[in-house]
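User: Please fill in residues for this 538-position structure.
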């Protein structure tokens, strides 16, 4: 049998001005998911809580936990009860740390350690003289009947009247707090955000920041619905504006939205009629403060969510007249087809051959005329060659298309909602590069010198350098800069003459000549520098 349980509530359409709490406890039979009407049965279990509205209520399917709530006047509660469904009886448990109502209270199976979580909520501040809200966060250990304060930062802040659900997303246990309001400001601040609490890491993260999302609201219904990839979060109705006078009234909503934690995106669900045409009037009338449980039907993919009661500024939603007390919204599990197409494109850029040849020749001649002869000659040759090759290629394109379709049905009368979601992703990335560089350098020099100790009448030094560069490359530039200095020195006597040549790498060639006498030292230097720049474009 499929049952929904409802406890407490209020007959007042504005709890701020008139509390009017109830202690009614009902069982609603929804076993026949195609029934045109549901049956309400009043229950009178022993030990039930006192009259109250805004309770925290959670279940694991066998037991129901009830916490806190708002009674008459300024009576907020922090007591805790558990209802045994099979035994039809209440048991009083350990009270919570804070009085609170309209808080975010949810059961979590938590990977084998069942726990109940309670976040924030409203209370009466005796010092201020009016209702405010909290930001306290607690966990309740079911097995140990004990409460623990959860500390941390970056939480959803002061808040009440929001929605809360437990949901597994990608194998991780989360609590989701959805919208709500704070009474810490005037006028009250309404929220349009979604906050996810990662139970494993004890951290909060704000979600749903996209531009396409529902209007800010509080007092809306919140539930979990099935989906092919993973369960999603549905909301309905709520109050979206706090009016300040009769000419500026409160406003309420009756729209339906679904939030995907997997894709961090909202979808607006529009009811349709039996012919598939848009029929937004098939939705329940505008309201807030309703209950919105989900019911799973074994062996049937059509799970359902139910919208129970609620109200607006002028009336409570009952089964009299046109105001229906219970709405049923059919949610089929959509089929999802995914197609993956892999295509390849290739692009190759090659920069392959570069050859540079550099030669330098230097000669130095010293002639002396006297009673003796002094001759000195120097020769140098240098060859430098290099080869550079580089190849780059890039290929691969990956595109994915995913389409989900489904049809939903709402009944108190009958309506059908259909939707199609399509997403596509294209990604490409493959890069390979090969680079080869070969450089060789050879140099040789010969120096010969014959000298006699005589009186020189003439001394001369001549230096010359010849540089040749050849480049063959797709995208390579080579430049050569040459710096040379030379000098001619005359003297009247000399005891020795010495010539020295030095050659460096393939990118630089330096030739140095040193001439010495008893009174003078002369240095002649010639330098050839080769620079090469290679660019590869893909």
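Assistant: Residues filled in for all 538 positions:
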């Amino acid at each position: 049998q499929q049952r929904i349980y409802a406890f407490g509530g209020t007959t007042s359409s504005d709890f701020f001005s008139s509390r009017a709490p109830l202690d009614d406890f009902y069982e609603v039979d929804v076993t026949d998911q195609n029934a045109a009407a549901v049956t309400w049965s009043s229950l009178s279990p022993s030990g039930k809580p006192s009259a109250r509205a805004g309770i925290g209520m959670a279940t694991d399917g066998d037991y129901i936990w009830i916490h806190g709530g708002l009674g008459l006047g300024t009576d907020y509660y922090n007591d805790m009860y558990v209802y045994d469904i099979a035994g039809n009886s209440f048991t009083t448990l350990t009270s919570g740390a804070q009085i609170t109502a309209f808080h975010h209270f949810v059961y979590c199976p938590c990977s084998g350690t069942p726990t109940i979580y309670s976040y924030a909520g409203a209370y009466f501040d005796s010092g201020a003289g009016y209702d405010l809200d909290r930001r306290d966060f607690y966990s309740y250990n079911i097995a140990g009947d004990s409460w623990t304060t959860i500390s941390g930062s970056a939480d959803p802040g002061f808040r009440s009247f929001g929605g809360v659900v437990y949901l597994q997303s990608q194998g991780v246990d989360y609590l989701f707090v959805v919208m709500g309001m704070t009474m810490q400001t005037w006028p009250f601040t309404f929220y349009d955000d979604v906050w996810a609490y990662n139970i494993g890491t004890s951290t909060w993260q704000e979600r749903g920041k996209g531009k396409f999302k529902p209007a800010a609201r509080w007092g809306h219904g919140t539930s979990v619905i099935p989906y092919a990839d993973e369960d999603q979060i549905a909301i309905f109705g709520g109050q979206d504006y706090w009016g300040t006078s009769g000419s500026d009234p409160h406003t309420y909503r009756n729209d339906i939205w679904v939030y995907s934690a997997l894709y961090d995106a909202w979808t607006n669900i529009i009811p349709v009629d039996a012919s598939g045409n848009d029929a937004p009037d098939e939705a329940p009338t505008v309201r807030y403060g309703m209950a919105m449980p989900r019911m799973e039907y074994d062996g049937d993919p059509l799970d359902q969510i139910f919208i129970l009661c609620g109200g607006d500024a002028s009336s409570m939603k009952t089964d009299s007249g046109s105001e229906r007390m219970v709405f049923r919204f059919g949610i089929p599990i959509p089929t999802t087809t995914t197609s993956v197409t892999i295509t390849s494109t290739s692009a190759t850029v090659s920069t392959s051959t570069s050859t540079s040849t550099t030669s330098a020749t230097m000669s130095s001649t010293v002639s002396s005329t006297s009673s003796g002869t002094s001759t000195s000659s120097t020769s140098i040759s240098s060859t430098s060659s290099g080869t550079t090759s580089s190849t780059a290629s890039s290929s691969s394109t990956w595109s994915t298309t995913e389409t989900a379709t489904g049809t939903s049905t709402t009944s108190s009368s009958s309506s059908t909602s259909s939707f199609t979601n399509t997403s596509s992703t294209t990604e490409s990335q493959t890069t390979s590069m090969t680079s080869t560089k070969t450089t060789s350098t050879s140099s040789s020099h010969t120096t010969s010198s014959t000298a006699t100790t005589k009186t020189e009448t003439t001394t001369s030094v001549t230096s010359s350098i010849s540089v040749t560069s050849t480049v063959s490359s797709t995208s390579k530039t080579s430049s050569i800069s040459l710096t040379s200095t030379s000098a001619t020195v005359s003297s009247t006597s000399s005891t020795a003459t010495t010539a020295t040549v030095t050659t460096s790498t393939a990118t630089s060639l330096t030739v140095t000549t040193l001439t010495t006498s008893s009174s003078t030292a002369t240095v002649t230097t010639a330098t050839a520098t080769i620079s090469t720049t290679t660019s590869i474009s893909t």
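For context: The chain has a mean pLDDT of 71.
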